[in-house]
Amino acid sequence: MSIENLKVNDPFADDVGDTQPKNYVHIRIQQRNGRKTLTTVQGLSKEYSPKALLKAFKKEYACNGTIIQDKDMGEVIQLQGDHRTKVMDFLTDKGSDKMGKYALAKENIKIHGF
Fold first, then answer.
1. pTM for this prediction
2. Which of these, 31, 56, 68, 99, is most buried using a 10 Å CB contact count?
3. Ranges for the SUI1 domain (predicted)?
4. Other CB atoms closer than 10 Å to residue 113's CB: what's the count?
């Protein structure tokens, strides 16, 4: 029996490797009352205009929405209803005139909820 096998491997220890921290865009759903839900989009970089994105989301999905200023998260886009997959498709669509060259990679988007 080798002593190497007795070493403790902590899976929750911080990885101090040379990996770059990724700036993810988080798309979450929040339950309101009853069947009502909110979709929140946060973590967008400064090169994206939240006002323009909100206007496009409202027009595309026929829903209402707003921009919330949060001291920790920055600007958070809130949309009424469950639009998580639609928002991800919108943000990653390179082919159409929606996002074009500003489209995000699917690896940079995290969808949370249910």
1. 0.77
2. 99
3. 25-95
4. 13
